[in-house]
Amino acid sequence: MQAASVIVVSNGRPEALRRCLLGLLQIDHPACEIIVVADALSRPAIAASGLADVIKTVACDRPNISAARNAGLAVAAGDIVAFIDDDAVPEPTWLSHLTAPFADAAVQASGGFVRARNGITFQWRARLAFGDATTTGIEVDDRQPTLMAAGPGRAVKTEGTNMAIRRDTLAALGGFDEAFAFYLDETDVNLRLAAQSATTAIVPLAQVHHGFAPSPRRRADRVPRDLFEIGASLAVFLRKHGPAVQPTPHVPRADQRRRLLAHMVAGRLMPGDVGRLLRTFDAGWRDGMTRRLAQHPPLTEEPVAFLPFPTRVSPHRMIGARFWQRARAEAQAAQVVADGGVATLLVLSPTSLFHHCQFTPAGVWDQTGGQFGKSDRTDPPFRLWRAAARRDREYARIMAVRVPQGHDLAISSENN
C-alpha cells in the first residue's frame, strides 16, 4: 500500500481538532503521516493530544483553506495526499479504502462518502460537478469503488473533507487556487482534473462523519452568518469554468435567497437577516470578480521527510447494552479504547426511536436508538426485532467500514 499524507486544516476549532486526531489514531492504514495546518487558536490542541512528536505541524493564521492546504502539500512526503476537515472523524478503515484504488496507475484522485451529523444518513455520496457550479447525484455500487473519467466542464465531485489525490498530480496542477478562500476550492481542482480526462475513483466504504462545527461563516445549525466568501468563490469559479465570459450573479444569488428564506420559514433567521446576508453575498461577488485567478504553476518544493504516524490494526469490540446498563457499558468501552482498541457501543431502548451514532470524547463509537426503530433510513419506521437479532443486524451493517477485512471482531453484551 502506498504511503499517504493526511492533511487536516484547523482554524479556531481546537476541540474539533482534538476529536479528529483521536479518530485518526484509530485508522488502520500501515504507512501514513498526519499534517495539521492550524492557526494560533487550534495549535494548542496538538500539544494537548500528546501527538506533537508524530505530527507535522504547519502554522497558518491566514483564514484561507486553499492556502492552508497548499502549505500542507508543501511538506507532504506521501505518494498520496488525503484531506479531512477538523470537524470530521474518519471510520477506522477510511484511509485504507480511500487509497486502495491508487494501485491502478490510471487513478489520479479518489473520494469517499460523508455521513451526516446523526452518524447514520449521508450528507454526500457520489456526485458530478459542472462548470456552472451545480452538482447532481449519481448512483454507484455501494460497496466497490467506481472509476470514472469525466471531461471539460463536467467533473467527478470529491468532497474536501474526504478526498485523496496523487501528490505528483496535485503538485503539477499547482495545488489549490488561493482565490478560493472558502467554498468550491476542491471543486475547482475536480474541474481542472476533468479537463485532463483524469480518472477519479468513488469509494463508498471510505467514510467520514462530518459534524458541521460552527465557524465565523456559519452557526452550529448550518445557518450562515456571512455569505461574503460564498459570493466571492462563486464569482471566481464561474469566471474560470462557467459558460459565460462575464458571469452574472443573478442565478447564484437567487439560490442563496431561497436557502435563506427556507431558514427564515423554519424560524432560524429573522426577516431582516435575509437582506443583510444577501448584501454580504453581493459584496463578496464584487470582490470575487476582481480577484486574480491563479495561473497554477507546478509546485516544486521538496517535501519534508516522511513522519510515520502510529496507526495500527486495533482489536475491535462491539458492546451491546440496554439503556439502563449504559454507565457500565460506557466504562467498558472507554477501557477498550484506553487499551489501544476500537470500541462500538450499541445501546437499545424498547422503543421505535431512530438510531444515531457519535464518536465520543473518549474515542468510543456510540450508537443509540430503539430496538424497533430504524438505523438505515431506508428501513420501515417500525419493525419487530428480538434484541439479539437487532444487535446482530447492526453489527453486520457497520462492520464493513469499522473493522478491517479479515480481522476478528469481539462481541460482548451486558444482556447475557
Structure notes:
It is built from eleven helices and 18 strands. The chain has 416 residues and is α/β, with parallel strands linked by helices. The strands form three sheets. Strands 1, 2, 3, 4, 5, 6, 7, 10, 12 and 13 form a ten-stranded mixed beta sheet that branches. It is globular and about 65 Å long.
Outline the biggest β-sheet. Answer: 10 strands, mixed
Helix content: 25-40%
CA radius of gyration: 22 Å
Question: What is the CATH topology descriptor of the largest domain?
Answer: Spore Coat Polysaccharide Biosynthesis Protein SpsA, Chain A
Number of strands: 18
CATH superfamily of the largest domain: Spore Coat Polysaccharide Biosynthesis Protein SpsA, Chain A
Helix and strand content put the structural class at alpha/beta
User: Residue-averaged pLDDT, rounded?
Assistant: 93
Specify the CATH class of the largest domain.
Alpha Beta
Terminal-residue CA separation: 41 Å
Shape: globular
Hey, roughly how much beta strand do the residues contain?
15-25%
Low-confidence stretches: none
How many domains comprise the coordinates?
3
- Just name the CATH architecture of the largest domain: Alpha-Beta Complex
User: What is the H/E string?
Assistant: EHEHEHEEHEEEEEEEHHEHHHEHEEEHE
| Helical stretch tally | 11
